[in-house]
Design a protein that fits this description.
- By secondary structure, the chain is an alpha/beta fold.
- Helix content is 45%, strand content 19%.
- The chain is built from 16 helices and 17 strands.
- A nine-stranded mixed β-sheet has the order 5-6-4-1-7-8-9-11-10, with helices on both faces. A six-stranded parallel β-sheet has the order 14-13-12-15-16-17, with helices on both faces. Strands 2-3 form a two-stranded antiparallel ribbon.
- Bound molecules: 6-O-phosphono-alpha-D-glucopyranose.
- The site of 6-O-phosphono-alpha-D-glucopyranose has 7 residues, from strand 1.
């Protein structure tokens, strides 16, 4: 019999380890990666003496398992050919675009499938090596969809959970995938499959009924003599940590100097994204240009700052979108800029956590307008910093977060005029309405943080 949820050891299986190698004083050293997922799961794994199986992010044979800040880490190695075919290829040029509404053409290459299966087998074997009787395996995301069934074969008595961080597409799109049945059967090896939204869970259920032998309705399916539960667990952020950072006097000082840097009386519209074609940055820039056209003389009073965090730079579609964004920024600044005012400021880098929070604090309006997004944590982070109840969030209805953050100004990012109007309304919104909306948004992120998310998932895995 398995132990209770608060005692079982947990083996997390994710494409990336929660650490990365950085240059330190004594050569390369491991550093904990930023982000809510790591800060939520690391304490659980640590406290329960569990392990984390993942790729260190570089090419070559993996280092031996090691302990970092009390966390037992089991690296899985990828050779260059596998980085090309498993990571950049099948994961990020087939599954990623397909699962994000095919906003870019998904590439189907037969020679990428075999490496995807081989790497999934390697992850499953690495997890099986550390799993002991009574442990729980928690597998994450689209890179590892075959791991649940592979683990089921290797460790039949293990309780297995899977959480999909990105959307699961409508069956009409999923049906294009030549390996759709294998992917579904891979996932159905889990006892619990979690999704970000009810729509994603429903899309999965329909696909599973159509293309596998799974049967059942609602949240319970029967597959190969087992019960598989399908449910929704909207991921969140470490609200307390972000709020605490925002409340520090030095953060307020930094935010003030960011505002001063814009010039007197200027309003700041902010965008923060990984540089990814799903984030709708081109559409957002076009909407901002439309806003400038409408404001005419008032164009001098508003600045749009886009922070674009480098991501998957070797995947051709990412290279292409970067070029297009930078051309668009140049076009807007060339057309609308003056010697005194640059309407779009653009940073292609990631910011240290302290600076990021200060930027959230400085922003009058935050625009989060992905074309499709599993959840979008930036929108929740912005809300968590606004302790005094000001600031307006403009949010795409195609982000999973829109299901919870219903008091944001919701937009269809494909509607350029509509997004420009939303930005204009956000800038002109009466203070009472700003406070009413932000108050409601803050209650959402205070109620559902990433710790509750992890507890709910694990609780459901044991129920
Ligand atoms: C998304 C995915 C994660 C992934 C992250 C960064 O949030 O859901 O699984 O780790 O992007 O992408 P990368 O390719 O750098 O791991």
């Amino acid at each position: 019999m398995n132990p209770s949820p608060d005692r079982a050891r947990i083996v997390v299986v994710a494409n990336r380890l929660p650490v990365a190698q950085v240059a330190g004083k004594a050569g390369k050293e491991w550093k904990t990666s930023p982000g809510g997922l790591v800060s939520a799961l690391a304490p659980i794994v640590r406290e329960r003496d569990g392990s984390w199986v993942g790729w260190p992010g570089t090419e070559g044979p993996p280092p031996p398992s090691f302990v970092h800040e009390g966390l037992f880490l089991c690296p899985v190695g990828l050779c260059q050919e596998e980085i090309d075919s498993f990571y950049q290829g099948f994961s990020n040029s087939t599954l990623w675009p397909l699962y994000h509404d095919a906003v870019r053409w998904p590439e189907f290459h037969r020679h990428w499938w075999k490496p995807y299966t081989l790497v999934n087998e390697r992850f499953a074997r690495a997890a099986a090596e550390v799993l002991q009787p009574g442990d729980v395996a928690w597998v994450h995301d689209y890179h590892l969809q075959l791991v649940p069934s592979l683990l089921r074969t290797l460790c039949p008595d293990t309780r297995i959970g899977f959480f999909m961080h990105i959307p699961f597409p409508p069956v009409e799109l999923f049906a294009q995938l030549p390996w759709r049945r294998s992917i579904l059967e891979g996932l159905l090896g889990a006892d619990l499959i979690g999704f970000q939204t009810k729509n994603c869970a429903r899309n999965f259920e329909i696909a599973a009924r159509r293309f596998s032998s799974a049967r059942g309705t609602g949240s319970l399916m029967d597959f190969e003599g087992r019960r598989v539960r399908i449910d929704t667990f909207p991921i969140s952020i470490d609200t307390a940590q972000i709020s605490a950072q925002a409340a520090k006097p030095e953060t307020a000082r930094l935010a003030e100097s960011i505002k001063q840097g814009l010039g007197p009386e200027r309003r700041l519209i902010l965008g923060v994204d990984r540089l990814d074609y799903t984030k709708g940055i081109i559409h957002r820039l076009r909407a901002f240009e439309t806003l400038l056209e409408r404001l005419e003389d008032g164009a001098q009073t508003v600045t749009f700052l886009q922070i674009a965090v480098p991501s998957r730079e070797l995947v051709p579609q990412y290279l292409d979108i970067r070029t297009r964004i930078e051309q668009q920024v140049g076009h807007i600044n060339g057309t609308w800029g003056t010697a005194e005012h640059v309407p779009v400021r653009y940073l292609y880098r990631s910011l240290p956590f302290e600076e990021l929070v200060a930027h959230y604090l400085a922003a009058d309006v935050m625009v989060v307008t992905p074309l499709r997004d599993g959840m979008n944590l930036v929108s929740k982070e912005y809300v968590a910093t606004r302790a005094n109840g000001d600031g307006v969030l403009v949010l795409s209805e195609f982000a999973g977060a829109a299901n919870e953050l219903t008091e944001a100004v919701l937009v269809n990012p494909h509607d350029i005029d509509g997004t420009a109007t939303a930005m204009q309304e956000a800038l002109a919104m009466p203070p009472e309405e700003v406070h009413r909306r932000m108050g409601a948004l803050r209650r959402v992120v205070e109620r559902n943080d990433v710790h509750l998310w992890a507890d709910s998932f694990l609780g459901a895995l044991f129920s």
